[in-house]
Amino acid sequence: MSEEHRDTPRRAVLWSGQLKFGDHSFDCQIWNISFGGAKVNVGLPFAKGTEVSLTLEGKGTFTGKVMWQSDQNIGIQFDEGEEVMRDAFGEDALVTLGLDTNELTHKK
To answer: Does residue 22 fall inside a structural domain?
Structure first.
């Protein structure tokens, strides 16, 4: 099993989105997401370091860079900070997704 290199926890999802590169836009599927980035299936190769934006309906558009590419999947590291992501997803969604690391939020 590979070692985890992320600073923030990730959550498996299956969401549709739009990936934009320059003047081109592609439909894509988000396979996992965290405050720091996402694994995206776009069906096309992207070079490491490519600047992209990922639009999630109802959440907003997040900019970032391609950090890795394998088959039809890419890993995007978001430029936005954790506070921007928390605002975009809202507190209820954060708890549901398991992305909220505040132990007090999870205790009832």
So the answer is: yes
Whether the CB-CB separation of 42 and 28 falls below 8 Å is answered with yes
Instruction: Give 63-66's long-range contacts (Cβ < 8 A, gap of 24+).
Output: 64/37
DSSP string of the chain, one letter each residue = -PPP--SS-EEEEEEEEEEEETTEEEEEEEEEEESSEEEEE-SS---TT-EEEEEETTTEEEEEEEEEEETTEEEEEESS-HHHHHHHHHHHHHHHHT----HHHH--
**Residue 74 in domain:** yes
Band the pLDDT of 92: cuts 50, 70, 90.
low
pLDDT score recorded for residue 90: 80
CATH number at residue 15: 2.40.10.220
- % of the chain residues with pLDDT over 90: 49
Tell me what pLDDT residue 58 has: 86
Which residue type sits at 39?
K
